[in-house]
Design brief:
Elements: E1 2-4, E2 7-9, E3 16-18, E4 22-28, E5 31-38, H1 41-56, H2 62-67, H3 71-85, H4 89-103, H5 113-124, H6 137-156, H7 183-192, H8 197-207, H9 211-215, E6 222-223, E7 228-231, E8 240-243, H10 246-253, H11 276-285, H12 294-306, H13 311-318, H14 323-328, H15 334-373
Antiparallel strand pairs: 1-4, 2-3, 4-5, 6-7, 7-8
Helix pairs in contact: 3-4, 4-6, 8-10, 8-12
């Protein structure tokens, strides 16, 4: 068994050159087998070690390896499944772009836990184009999760024998706190929102709708006569009705109709699938840090509760199945907590004043009793 690089004559120059990829060579059942593995020597060594171990344990199956498709080939199969069955299809496409950039050319049978670990560590060192910050650990974990799902599907389809992702430990994610925007921050954000982004943000802050629910909102889902939005792209897959206040009514009526969707690409009529770039630029101009679009939903829920709306009503507007989930979306603000302790102060002052009056009455009665006894 060995690893090596192939040498061949370049047709254009006539010179002898080495292949970019490392190959592994081994014997199985008396037959010599050579396979291209990776440009990385250590990966090739690990692949050869894995094959050697499988042969020693009588687990190696040459037929299984020959039926194993290349990563990019089976990615197409998985995305077809995703398009037909998952709401996260557009997100899946984005994640597979990163995965394919690394695993392209590998057969599924040659993707090992070591190789996945290498992807995980290397991905963590890369910087996001927009934020100029390292790729979030949560993002990498989601990518590994979809890679795991793809291998499970490959096993089901007989294209893989095992799932190497199961042996890779995910990153420990930072517990990012929800960011509740103040009135002043909301004003700054809206001032910096341009084009279709502004009505999208206004809807989020006034209806607590999720981003997907807003981007896939159709004209047929809005009843301007009853001031009702019928939300269809819900997480629970159950439609819910959200009432429109005056600002939402005016905002939606001001949107130019270009297709069946409110927020769409004017060239194709298809809904926008992401606002990551435009929203990120608006936040940067507004000098707001640590804000995600989903925080607008938390902000709306918190403002409703602070305005005296009961949790049951907030739960129905947000589309939650239980109150406990709604309580996670409502966060006391500094002003709200200050108002709460001031309310206590007023109560204590009232109690204290009544206590003074009561004490004065008792003192007066004692004086009367004392005078009468004399």
């Amino acid at each position: 068994m060995s690893i090596y690089k192939r040498k061949y004559r370049n047709k254009k120059t006539g010179k002898i050159v080495e292949s970019k990829n490392w190959y592994i060579s081994y014997y199985f059942e008396g037959k010599k087998i050579s396979e291209s593995v990776s440009p990385n020597k250590r990966v090739a060594e690990e692949a050869l070690k894995s094959v050697k171990g499988d042969i020693a344990k009588d687990k190696y199956n040459l037929k299984c390896d020959t039926k194993s498709p290349k990563f990019e080939e089976y990615t197409k199969v998985y995305l077809e499944y995703s398009k037909a069955n998952k709401r996260s299809y557009e997100t899946d496409i984005t994640m597979f772009k990163a995965l394919c950039a690394f695993f392209k050319g590998y057969k599924l049978s040659k993707i090992t836990p070591f190789l996945i670990e290498k992807y995980k560590i290397g991905r963590g060192k890369k910087v996001a184009r927009m934020s100029k910050k390292p790729i979030a650990k949560a993002t990498i974990n989601r990518e590994l999760a979809i890679l795991k799902a793809m291998f499970n599907m490959a096993i089901r389809d007989g294209k893989a024998d095992k799932n190497p992702v199961k042996e890779v430990k995910l990153f420990k994610e930072d517990n990012k706190k929800e960011r509740i925007l103040t009135s002043e921050e909301i004003q700054r954000l809206l001032t910096e929102c341009n084009g279709y982004l502004k009505p999208v943000v206004i809807l989020a802050l006034n209806t607590a709708m999720r981003l997907r629910e807003i981007l896939y909102l159709k004209w047929s889902n809005v009843d301007f006569n009853r001031n009702i939005i019928v939300v269809t792209q819900t997480k629970s897959k159950k439609n819910r009705n959200v009432p429109m206040n005056g600002l939402v009514f005016k905002t939606l009526q001001g949107v130019e109709r270009k297709s069946e969707y409110f927020f769409c690409d004017p060239k194709t009529g298809e809904p926008y699938h992401s606002i990551k770039t435009s929203f990120g630029k608006a936040l940067k101009r507004a000098k707001l840090e640590g804000v995600r679009f989903h925080d607008l939903r938390h902000t709306a829920a918190t403002m409703m509760v602070m305005s005296g709306v009961d949790l049951v009503t907030v739960k129905e507007i947000l589309g939650h199945s239980n109150i406990e989930m709604t309580m996670r979306y409502t966060h006391p603000t500094t002003d709200g907590k200050m108002n709460a302790v001031r309310a206590l102060e007023r109560q204590m002052e009232d109690i204290d004043s009544r206590n003074i009056v009561a004490t004065a009455k008792v003192t007066s009665m004692r004086k009367v009793v004392n005078n009468s006894s004399k």
